[in-house]
Amino acid sequence: MLGLMRGYINGVDAVNRRVGRIAMYGIFALMGVLLWSSISKTFFVPTLWTLEMAQFVMVGYYVLGGPYSIQLGSNVRMDLLYGDWSIERKAWFDLLTVCFLIFYLCVLLYGAVSSTAYSLGYWKSEPFSFLFGVITGSEEIGTMERSNSAWRPYLWPIKVVMILGFFLMLLQCVSELFKDVLRLKGEPV
């Protein structure tokens, strides 16, 4: 069992490290979009797409970088109390709180899947089976949801990024749960 846990931890951490290191460069894409927005507003005709594209890039940056942030332990903690605790006490506390986070991420993932199915034109009550059917080719896409802005981009691509980010974050939280279990057993992590 410990071998499976270590394998899971190593696999998920490796994937999230790679995705997080790539997502870090999203800040440069965001800076480029905002720089173009400033230049076009100052010297040319203002563009319609820059604000919304900046929002999409920021969502991707944040959601895909979140699992890597959890892996590094750079998320916000209440160090006033937590910093002075023993490793065992921290592991117990993290074990408890990561369970709440896993539940929350499951709710977010369900909402993201439902929202993505809606953005692809599905209005019934089985979004998971619909998206699986779209991937396998057994379902047809309906009228796709578009933004209400003047640019009117399709919303499904950013919603797919959110599904991927929430799923990777869920996997990373399970990895952190396994790390806490290993710490409580006295095993090296």
Automatic annotation (TrEMBL):
Belongs to the TRAP transporter small permease family. It is a multi-pass membrane protein. InterPro entries: DctQ, TRAP_DctQ. GO terms for molecular function: transmembrane transporter activity. The keyword Membrane applies. The complex comprises the extracytoplasmic solute receptor protein and the two transmembrane proteins. Keywords: Cell inner membrane, Cell membrane, Membrane, Transmembrane, Transmembrane helix, Transport. It is found in: Cell inner membrane. This is TRAP transporter small permease protein. Part of the tripartite ATP-independent periplasmic (TRAP) transport system. Residues 30-181 form the Tripartite ATP-independent periplasmic transporters DctQ component domain. Its main location: membrane. The lineage of its organism: Bacteria, Pseudomonadati, Pseudomonadota, Alphaproteobacteria, Rhodobacterales. The chain crosses the membrane at residues 21-39, 51-70, 91-113, 154-174. One of its GO terms (cellular component) is plasma membrane. It comes from the Bacteria.
